[in-house]
Amino acid sequence: MIEVNNNLMVNLTLIREQMVYHSDVTIREFLIGNSGVAAAIVFANCLADRELIDLHILKALMSVQGDGTPITKSFVTNQVLSVSQITEVVSVEEMMPKVLSGSTALIIDGFTEAIIIGTIKNKTRNIEEPISEALVRGPRVGFNESLTDNAAILRRHGENASLALVSMHIGSRAKKELVIAYMKDIADPNLVDEVRKRIGKIEMDNVPESGYIEQLIEDNYLSPFPQVQSTERPDRVISALMEGRVAILLDGTPFALIAPVTFSMLLQSPEDYYERWMAGTLLRLLRFFAALVALLTPAMYISFISFHPGLIPTKLALSIIGSRVGVPFSSLVEALIMEVAIEILREAGLRLPKPIGPAMGIVGGLIIGEAAVQAGIVSPILVIVVAVTAISSFAIPQYNAGISLRMLRFVAMFCAAAFGLYGVVLFILMLCAHIVKLKSFGVPYASPAVPYRLNDWKDFFVRMPLFMMKSRPEMLHTKNKKRKRL
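User: That's the sequence. What structure does it adopt?
Assistant: Structure tokens below.
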């Protein structure tokens, strides 16, 4: 470790040796007022706030009118510098990472410590409505890439002294700040400790996005289902904290993580609570139905056409048989062609520029479907099945949950092609067994269905009136069981 020397010239020589690979770092030498004491500041041009440096550091120090009193560390930090964030380091190795992150190092001749001054210049986009979680009714506020802004957004949701924001650092080479948010008087301490423990075990050079953390702290990496919920919506995070869950915010990403999560949470939307309970319940039931349609409709088509045509009404069966005349492929290959084409179109629509992306998806789907029918590659009834499946998958509010169902849809199709309806039933049983066994931070993924908790069913398939939802979820083992209501 190279310690800070009491000779300014020696320190500047050591720093210039470190600056060989950092051309954006600037050293500015000057004298402190009329005292004749030499000093220097070290800062990164691209990250430090130059106006703050000029007004509150350079001007303040160079304007000192000494009366013969020696320049001391206490005098500089307490009477001269008008900056809120000030720390001290004793080595060059500690100083340079701070400088390269946007802070300014003040080195004074005769001092054996470097003063680190917070001058980070934050350039972030404005607070906007979340694109991935749009609502008809609700706040038009979403997180951005600044951890400071995101923490402030949570604070602004209401005066609450029990909201704890615990800071951590992650990444061995490129360190990033991370905040664990929870309610001190609600959240289970064991849950908070488990979240801290899992994050503390992460050893990576760099963690650029919260998706890395999500993958490294989940319970079962072989499961197709997300075991940590990601969201851009502050209102969703606050609601989860009030239930006793824990949120994770990472600097540099607008996506916060919520743990633990259950499968039913992935099909719920904040809008369920902003509308009256009957409308919220209807919308929620529609989403559960849409999830079933998105998962099983192609598999049911394959099983009925290939194995159980007798279960189809006679007139409909004759219509389907007539439409399939001339189709050279089996029902499985036919369905795979259309499903893969739709998935490619969906992915292409996401990667194209925004003005043409949606048009590409719609027009491309219509053209490909019509051309495939005209060419006799697929039947018209399959085009309808695939269209209904795609539309149903768009009704799922969580993007990562939709991806899980899209993956499982292909597994269901192969099971149906192998064993018909028996294969579909076997697939459903295996899926249910997996969900029942799966846990998220010790909470059963199938809660509140398994284990059965009647009180939690008030916010499961049906969203009961707010005055009836007096208790927090029992599955979370919260300190405070009751929601305070007048």
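The CA atoms of residues 366 and 383 lie 10 Å apart.
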